[in-house]
Amino acid sequence: MPRPRFNRILLKLSGEALMGEGQFGIEPEAVARLAEEIRVAKEGHELCLVVGGGNIFRGLAGAAKGFDRASADYMGMLATVMNALALQNSLERIGVDTRVLSAIPMATVSEPYIRRRAVRHMEKGRVVIFAAGTGNPFFTTDTAAALRAAEMGCDALFKGTSVDGVYDADPKQTPDAKRYESVSYNRVLSDHLKVMDATAVALCRDNKIPIVVFNVRQQGNLARVLSGEGMATIVSQEGE
Known about the structure:
Radius of gyration: 17 Å
Mean pLDDT: 93
Strand order of the largest sheet: 4-3-5-2-1-6-10-11-9
CATH topology: Carbamate kinase
Low-confidence stretches: none
Structural class: alpha/beta
CATH superfamily: Acetylglutamate kinase-like
Distance between the termini: 14 Å
Order of helices and strands: EHEHHEEHEHEEEEHHEHE
Helix content: 25-40%
Largest sheet: 9 strands, mixed
Number of helices: 8
CATH class: Alpha Beta
CATH architecture: 3-Layer(aba) Sandwich
Strand content: 15-25%
């Protein structure tokens, strides 16, 4: 069954996607590759992004080591701003007009997040990168992605991962894990499938935003999945 075509897309990337083969930080070659993928994929689409910060600092991990949870989450939000600026730099070097909008105001390096401004940027063909999560501690960047997708009126949320869809177990540890072509929001929640956190999945369900899970590390896969080809799993109301 062919996948539907989506026009306005929110792409959620993990911070780890920016560190390439490294174990920490930002790898310029990995960021440049992602930027080129986005440049090709954005043709014919309105595109916005949320990037995580786990390659620099993860709030939950910091809290587990003794940081105050709220402070740790704010540090994680600042890490997402660094990633957003790195991605903006790479996109603009290849001619893609890009704006970074931060939920935590920092006028020197980004625009403040204002919904109408973000929509207008997208209507003008610019790539919009949402930084600093929701601006609140105790919420993940997955939840920020679902929230921004709803606010922007996106047709779908594309979740770029290191696997080619949703499985009933970790395919890296369970070779015979079952892969879903489609799966319902409720099954994702009830079976604790590792797609996004529960708040993000429920928010997408309540706003009828399909979640498309695909392997962003595979060269050219973002454009293929956007065109309805390529391997991916769609999480929706009508899934299995």
